[in-house]
Amino acid sequence: MKYIIFKNRYLIFISLFVLLCSCNAQNKKKSKTDITKSEIRLTDGGYRIFLNGESFYIKGAGLADNGNLEALKNHGANACRTWSTDNGKEILDQAQELGMKVMMGVWVGLERHGFDYNNEKAVKEQLESIRKRVMELKDHPALMIWGIGNEMNHQSKNPKVWEAVNDISKMIHEVDPHHLTTTPLAGIDKRNVDLIANRAPDLDFLSIQLYAPIDVLPQIIARSSYEGPLLITEWGATGYWEVGKTQWGAPLENNSSVKADLYRSRYQNSIISQSQVMGSFVFLWGQKQERTPTWFGMFMADGNETESVDVMHYVWNGKWPENRTPRLHDFTLEGQRAVNNIKLKAGKAYTAQVEVSDPDNDKLIFRWEIMKESGSTKSGGDAEYIPDTVKGLFPDNTNENTKFLAPSESGAYRLFIYVEDGNNHTAHANIPFWVED
Prior knowledge:
- By secondary structure, the protein is of the alpha/beta class.
- It has two domains: 35-317, Glycosidases (TIM Barrel, Alpha-Beta Barrel), CATH 3.20.20; 327-436, Macroglobulin (MG2) domain (Immunoglobulin-like, Sandwich).
- The chain is built from nine helices and 19 strands.
- The chain has helices at 2-34, 69-74, 88-98, 120-137, 160-175, 190-199, 217-224, 256-271, 307-317, and strands at 38-43, 46-51, 54-56, 58-63, 79-81, 101-106, 143-148, 180-186, 205-209, 230-234, 277-285, 327-333, 343-345, 349-357, 365-372, 389-390, 401-405, 411-420, 426-436.
- The strands form four sheets. Strands 4-5-6-7-8-9-10-11 form an eight-stranded parallel barrel. Strands 13-19-18-15-16 form a five-stranded mixed sheet, with no helix packed on it.
- The chain is globular.
- It holds the Pfam family Glyco_hydro_2_C.
- Keywords: Hydrolase, Signal.
- This is Glycoside hydrolase family 2 TIM barrel-domain containing protein.
- One of its GO terms (molecular function) is hydrolase activity.
């Protein structure tokens, strides 16, 4: 009897052990299967990224801290990029739920921020810190690409930066053989292509970031001598460093409709038509202050969409969204436009007018605002302070025509107009002006 009981217990133990091993094996098999394996192939249509053997043309956006990933998916995108691993797990989890993929940014120290690539100890510590972040995220099924640093060539002089980038790429490939590595460059030229080829050959491909020059992308690529695969990891509105300025140095920002037209032409003429380009991440899905609160963000601070979102919906889906953003036609201050170097007298009354239409004939809501001019000299997307808004200058702030008082203190300002349609869309424009005593 004791033998039978012992034998039965032994059989139960063996059965449980076999079941446990089977579950572990299945879990291991499942985790390996769930990893998205990325590679690059040269196809008849040019270079393409393949994920688990399936071609994947990237239709994505750079995700701001306040960016809405669900809205990105709903507008037809299939991917997003980040600039660091901050909140990386949360972003990957949400992307997975939405059926999207992520180019995960790995923040790398910049020379312009004081990082010294001659300091071997600092470089080694940075590598080990990045290793820990990579290990935490490398097996996530939404992960597609590692983006090492951001515009490491911007205001950079020490060529050792590329050796550090190469060591990071090698480390990633050692611990994560399933995902591609790249580094996003500010523009592209032969000097940087040669530097990276010699000092960072472990990278799988290059990524580039262009604004106004993207209009002549084929010529830029040809002059760089780079013949390999490319991603456009930032592109969008013409930059504040690329536009005309007033006599006092204020850059002239395009209104939201001009920007939308540029988004459309740049995507259709310079991105999807290039065989080296494997897709792109439009900039910026969210809102940020960079010279103005409206320069690069495709959204307003309150979450309203601009016309550039409409355009990306169109190019990603082949049709317009059901409800569209108001369209600006003209904007004047005392009958003058931003290029006229407008100067006002402190405390004196002036008029402004905006001409706008709505594709859906929605009732429009007008909001006017005057803000001090930004004095920021930062570059490369570094964080900027938000200039003060001057209160109490508009007796009536709700019509397409308005009267206002010029600020009482002399200096540089901007007049902003925001036009909302009641359906979470906003058109915007601004005119810089100078106040004299």
